[in-house]
Amino acid sequence: MSPETLFPSLLSNCSTARPLTGLPHGPDPPPCDFGHNRKDAPDGRVSQIATETSTPAQDLSPPRPQAQDGAPPLPAEPVESRAAGLLRGVFESGRPLTYIRTSEEMRAARLLVEAAGRLFPGQAFPVWTWSLTEGFRSGEGEPAPGTRSALEALDFIAAFAQPGIFHLKDFHEPLRESPEVRRRLRDLYASCHDRRKFIVITSPVRSIPDEVERSVIFVELRPPDVIELVAFLRDELNSSASASSAAALDPETLYLLARALQGLTLDEARYALRRALASGRAMGPDWIPFLLEEKRFLVNRGGVVEFISDSKSLGEIGGLDGLKKWLLERRKLFQLRDSVSAEIVPKGVLLMGIPGCGKSLAVKAIASQFDLPLYRVDMIEIFSGRHGKPEGAFVEACRMLEDMAPAVLWFDEIEMGITSTDSGGEQGRIFAFFLTWMQEKTRGLFVAATANRIDLLPAEMIRKGRFAEVFFVDLPLDDERVEIFKIHLDRRGVDSSRFDLKQLAGFTNGWAGAEIEQCVVSAITKARIEDRDLTEQDLVSISVSIVPLSRTMKEQINHIRQWAFERAVRASPRALGR
């Protein structure tokens, strides 16, 4: 399926949106949080950690004015990005040692320059960068002689008489291997106090020796937010061959392109932008499908999260009118999530019920209805051990998807992967994290979960407020089976008006939607083998030979219905008892 078909409303909104006066911003991030963001060290001490919040910058913004005709609120003029504000706060606190975990060295270097410019406006505040292969250099200048080794680099910092920021790339290796380097760094910690000399170590891994752990503030650099991506887009487009056309991009178009790139690193965003440039499409909203392609590659590369491109519409679901009505009502609230109270923004929905009755199909329709990409968490892959400890892989997957919001996140058969039965084991720890995460996650991520063994779901999972609503999906009613027959016949190019669908619905009483689909597929297969058109008799004869799940698993299905009778909202508007 082509990417243009996955987000039709998003593209149409881009092409008809009205110009903006600026872009989103929020208040300056807090310098650091040493109370809530912390990590126990191996010896039991607590290291000081600052992490960027995964909440998008616009979620932190004060209320913004509404656009006309019920459109999303208009963004305001930006001040600084989330990452730059965090680093500025660290420097304002006067801490001389900072450890940043990131694989984006160039982005980290640019953020240090930006933070220095905001912290000391109008002053020549140098930013020196060190690597093991070149030594220290400032900007584009020549490397300083005699600074290639780690000890020489630290001696250079000690001898430097002026204020400055000293960026040490991959310094975790000499820090881990040399006691002399660790001792020298501790000496610098004392000598750099109140002298506006800041040492910043960047590394893709977290490796802080015990000797310096209490002296270092740890920062995990998350992917860029919308403000940083907008600035990146301006720079890239102005330096490209299409610089003349770049000036024609209005602020709202830049904002929409930046939202499509959320979750990517700046390098990945650059590749996505070049893909869009190479497409030959007009600069603007037509680029969004090509930007989303890079996001698919990022998600599928990890193996834990899967991008689902098989979108469905609500019209492809037979019945479930109660669920459809709820989705149509909540769609507007979700689209206005940045301007309304977080209490009324839908967090997600739990669909539980009988297998084969359209729960998975409904999740795909939710993503299409909300004009959002759909990602599915593979719990089997998480517990495989190929990605480290399961709880670590699960936490990292959730954090990555928060960075990629807005999106729909799908947990299929959630009762098999996230449960409280093993409270002291891996599943119990994942369950505890999931409950907290559902309360605190960014409002741009809509969680859709499905469950078959609903009796295995703990009370903490289904209580009111965890999900926006809990729906029970039962076997389809008579008129719903008529609708399901019509959908599957029309989808396969068969004129459904030639058949007595009410009679077929009578033959299939107690059937699940998946069983009706297989009846249609088997009848069409039989007709094609005999090289003739499908007849109603084909459908009747196939229906007679199929034993539905409601008959083979009667006791279990009755148990599911009784359990859900007073615990969930009916996805179909009629009573359960039949």
Written account of the structure:
This protein has 578 residues and is α/β, with parallel strands linked by helices. It folds into four domains: 3-23 and 232-302, no CATH class; 38-60 and 82-220, P-loop containing nucleotide triphosphate hydrolases (Rossmann fold, 3-Layer(aba) Sandwich), CATH 3.40.50.300; 314-473, Rossmann fold; 478-546, Helicase, Ruva Protein, domain 3. 44% of the residues lie in helices and 13% in strands. A hairpin with a 5-residue loop joins strand 1 (38-40) and strand 2. The longest helix is centred in the C-terminal third of the chain and has 17 residues, at 513-529. It is elongated and about 90 Å long. It starts with 7 loop residues before the first helix and ends in an 8-residue tail after the last strand.
